[in-house]
Specification:
By secondary structure, this protein is mainly β. The chain has a single domain, classed as TolB, C-terminal domain (Neuraminidase, 6 Propeller), CATH 2.120.10. About 5% of the residues lie in helices and about 40% in strands. The strands form eight sheets. It has a five-stranded mixed beta sheet with strand order 1-23-22-21-20. Strands 2-28-27-26 form a four-stranded antiparallel beta sheet, with no helix packed on it. Strands 3-4-5-6 form a four-stranded antiparallel beta sheet, with no helix packed on it. A hairpin with a 4-residue loop joins strand 3 (about 50-60) and strand 4.
């Protein structure tokens, strides 16, 4: 019986492998959608440490870094314990650094200088929103730059089928630096989810403390803000292969946007629609696919060059007895190492706690999935 089952599994594996390569042939719209729901738990956060959001990796040794977005609340959460955590390639915690009440969002690894860049949302605890960096071993913390106050973008005018128009006015009570990405010249780009902006710091490794954030921002377009849910506009960032396009997730609008980089205009356009809670982004240069965390769909999807979904990874299967998510739950940020994609399970309740599985999580995790062949 076992031999029969083994033979069936082998045939299934071969069939899936053949389909995978065909599905991910970029530009071929006749191929089927690739779906793989298998998810492994790569690491569990220490007890009491919750809401992992940002993630990055040191490709030289496979170390994975994550940061927590645990916002202070005078009544319900006066003293959150935000941390930057470093795991080895086997998921073992090997270092951590405390950030107290300051919630952290995006992380980005500088391969050349072996530094981890951190987006600290200090406006949530009155310490000021800023970009920080530490050495790969989490020593030598230093400030890089203060996020400037630029306000909300202009109102967005949305046309309706009956030829009427809606005028959306955005708020901007906080500076919320979220995701970051480097270009090949060492410039750092930062999204601000509440101010609806993309900031740029040129050759950031050459400065410290008061690095100049370019003024005006690279983009301050109404498409980068949101009045939707979850209430975060400009979020994940990723460049395409030749850096002619900067992709930007707008979480509340369920969109991925594109910013033209070569024309000098910084024009913002809609690249993909209806991705439920588009959050973190990572571009796979090998396959030419853009991977998007869909935090409200509990999956990670791949977009081809036309903005079409060609693959879906992961799913939510419930809460385990040990209080961890089974599969993906509010996947926030991805990073690719080799042929695997690592994803943080933010698992943060944003609505009514009574009907959200996130409210039942007591131990937070990082998930790992195998990328399809291409």
């Amino acid at each position: 019986m076992k031999k029969i089952l083994a033979g069936c599994m082998y045939l299934l594996f071969i069939a899936v492998g053949v389909n995978t390569g065909a599905v991910l042939a970029d530009g071929d719209h006749s191929r089927r959608l690739f779906i793989d729901r298998d998810v492994d738990t790569f690491a569990k956060l220490p007890k009491g440490v919750r809401f992992p959001e940002g993630i990055t990796a040191n490709p030289a040794n496979g170390d994975i870094y994550t940061a927590t977005f645990d916002s202070p609340n005078p009544k319900t959460n006066p003293n959150p314990k935000n941390k930057l955590l470093r795991f080895d390639r086997h998921g073992r915690l090997i270092a951590s650094r405390d950030f107290g009440t300051t919630p952290l969002l995006g992380l980005e690894f500088d391969r050349t200088h072996k530094k981890v860049y951190i987006a600290a949302v200090g406006d949530f605890d009155d310490s000021g929103s800023r970009i920080l960096r530490v050495a790969a071993d989490l020593t030598d913390l230093e400030q890089v730059a203060i996020i400037p106050k630029v306000g909300a973008p202009d109102p967005r005018i949305v046309g309706n089928p009956d030829e009427s128009e809606d005028r959306i006015i955005f708020g901007d009570n906080a500076r919320v630096p979220n995701a970051m990405v480097f270009d090949s010249k060492g410039n750092l780009y930062i999204s601000d989810s509440f101010q609806g902006a993309i900031f740029k710091i040129a050759k950031v490794a050459d400065c410290s403390k008061d690095c100049k954030v370019e003024d005006p921002p690279l983009s301050h377009d109404p498409l980068l803000a949101t009045a939707g849910f979850p209430p975060f506009g400009a979020n994940g960032l990723a460049f395409n292969k030749d850096e002619s396009v900067l992709y930007v997730a707008n979480t509340g609008d369920d969109r991925v946007l594109s910013v033209e980089m070569m024309s000098g205009t910084g024009k913002v356009s809609v690249f993909a629609e209806s991705i439920n809670g588009a959050d973190g982004l990572v571009f796979d240069k090998g396959s030419g696919l853009l991977w998007v965390c869909a935090n409200q769909a509990d999956e990670v999807v791949a977009l081809n060059a036309g903005g079409r979904i060609v693959a879906k990874l992961g799913e939510f299967r419930g809460i385990k007895r040990n209080g961890t998510p089974d599969g993906l739950l509010f996947p926030a940020s991805p990073v690719i190492v080799g042929d695997e994609i690592f994803v943080t399970n933010l698992a943060i309740p944003l609505g009514s706690a009574a009907d959200e599985p996130e409210a039942n999580v007591t131990r937070w995790t990082i998930s790992r999935m195998r990328l399809p062949h291409h």
